[in-house]
Amino acid sequence: MKVRIGFEIHEQLATRTKLFCRSPADYRDAEPNTNVCEVCLGMPGAKPMGVNAEAVEGVIAIALMLNCELVREPVYILRKHYDYPDLPSGYQRTSMPIGKNGELAGVGIWEVHLEEDPGKYDPVTGRVDYNRSGVPLVEIVTAPDITSPEEARNFMRELVKVLHYSGRVRREGGTMRVDVNVSIEDGARVEIKNINSIKGLYRALKFEITRQKNLRRRGKAVKRETRAYIEEQMITKSMRTKETAEDYRYIPDPDLPPLRITEELVERVRSELPEAPHQKLQRFMQQYRISRDDAWAITSEPEMADAFEQVCGQVEPGRAAAFFRHIIKKTLNYHGMSFAESGLTVRDILAVLGAISSGRLSQQAAELVLREVVERGAEAEELIQRLSKLDEQSLASAVEQAIRENPGAVQDYRSGRREAINYLVGQVMRITRGRADAEKALEMLQERLS
Q1: Are residues 180 and 260 in the same domain?
Q2: Nearest to 121 by CA among 80, 82, 169
Q3: Is the separation of the CB atoms in 182 and 190 below 8 Å?
């Protein structure tokens, strides 16, 4: 059964003010309903200001990075009508497409829009926080070119990279929302609303595809409907019958003139565009002669890619790439943070690589240095001094202690279980707090136990 998956992705743009008023767009530290005014509260008689120029430029930049054609005819701001507590005016303003017919990672990008965010409704308490109301969004609509949850996950990772590289969206997390459309063998299309993570997206698709296939196997029809993803249970649940465009009663907003995307504006935005991640990946492979896997890992964040290029000015690129992919990425994944959040600097990385090259640090100790820098903001040079490799006499003492404290492992090794020595190497590393050279410890143990 062929699966077809398409997305409507909404991400907040990193602007200083909201889309149609001067209320601050950053509401992270604000008390509920304090970053608001008459316009974003939809009060009767309140008229919107002109469209936020910073937001328009942000959408143009993202559309260009997604290889879209920019629309040249007037772009009207439409009113999309629906009745929900998070929408005080009874309609949401959304633009006609600003970009069309793009492509990313083999997936068609149908349209790129500018839209205003609604408020945040809590169905448990019935309260609404309108601080978010009116914050500018970019909306990206894809073609249904994706055929599996794995493809969906890979595409979203690539899209997130493009959005971050653009420098036009918020990076603090929790601001992206994805609506997913799923159908099987040209059956009814089901929409899953407001998924806010790639992991949640993958799980929702796994469940929904299985649900639809099971219905069809039992001879039942799949209903055209909108469903919610229940993250705690990793299931989707029916919300309502799927709306059509006619249900929203789109009309041009009479209070706003249409946008005109001029050639001059497009070329100015284009001239300021950063290198896209897929372009950077290809350049890294060619310029630094590193593998695709290494380049993909390093270009996952623009800050990491920039750091890598600076390090390559002083370190052989292949060696630097292996360190970034296997040591730095491992440390970041362990702490669940991005390179930008870690506090790691080029100076730290060069110091650690230099200490490994000179033999002062083992690979294990290098990882400990990075962890301490990330966890405590410690100075790499100071940690390197403290964790420098043991001299031969101290290592020999640790080997003797490991043998003395683990007679069972010693007996196993001498009885022919050669893998037991790996446990003893681990004990030496524990005793020395990672300062030992693991290969040298292995040699000493083999010599001592023979």
Answers
A1: yes
A2: 82
A3: yes
- The arithmetic mean of pLDDT across residues 57-67, rounded, is 97
In the block, residue with structure tokens 């002062």: 360
pLDDT in tens, 163-218: 999 999 998 777 899 999 999 987 889 999 989 899 999 999 999 999 999 999 99
Question: Which tens digits make up the pLDDT trace of 350-404?
Answer: 999 998 888 777 777 788 888 888 888 877 777 777 766 666 777 788 888 888 9
Six-digit token pair at 150? 């794995």
Identify residue 74 by its one-letter amino acid code: P
Tokens of 416: 């022919």
Q: What is the pTM of this model?
A: 0.81
Q: DSSP label at 106? A: T
Burial class (CB in 10 A: 0-12, 13-18, 19+), 93: buried
Alpha helices, DSSP H only, in 43-168?
53-65, 149-166
Residue among 142, 172, 171, 170 nearest 155 (CA): 142
Range of the domain at 84: 3-271
Same domain, yes or no, for 37 and 140? yes
What gap in Å lies between CA 338 and CA 283, rounded to an integer?
Answer: 23
As for how many domains the chain has, the answer is 3
Confidence of residue 141 (pLDDT cuts 50, 70, 90): very high
User: Residues 166, 280: contact at Cβ < 8 Å?
Assistant: no
Cα 186 from chain centroid (whole Å): 31
Q: Which of residues 336, 361, 387 is at a domain's end?
A: 387
Contacts with 336 (C-beta within 8 Å, 6 or more apart), sequence order: none
